[in-house]
Design a protein that fits this description.
This protein has 66 residues and is α+β, with helices and mostly antiparallel strands. The protein is 29% helix and 26% strand.
Length: 66
C-alpha cells in the first residue's frame, strides 16, 4: 500500500493513516467528505515536508583560507 489510507475498522469512524500506519485524523463516518479527507491528507503531508526539510539541505561548503 502506498500513501495515506483510510481505516474502516470502526463503522462509525474513519481514521486517516499515513503509509507507515501513523494516525493522522479521525472523521465521523456519517459526516466525512472526500474534500475534508483530501485536505487533511494534504495538510499532514506539508507538515511532514516542513518538519523534515533539513534532511534535504545540501551540506554547507567549508571556505578555504588561502
Amino acid at each position: 500500500m502506498t500513501g495515506p489510507h483510510l481505516d474502516h475498522s470502526d463503522p462509525d469512524v474513519l481514521v486517516l493513516c499515513r503509509q507507515d500506519g501513523a494516525f493522522v485524523c479521525a472523521f465521523s463516518a456519517r459526516g466525512a467528505t472526500d474534500k475534508g479527507i483530501v485536505e487533511a491528507a494534504e495538510e499532514d503531508y506539508w507538515t511532514l515536508v516542513r518538519a523534515n526539510t533539513h534532511l534535504f539541505d545540501a551540506p554547507s561548503e567549508k571556505r578555504r583560507s588561502a
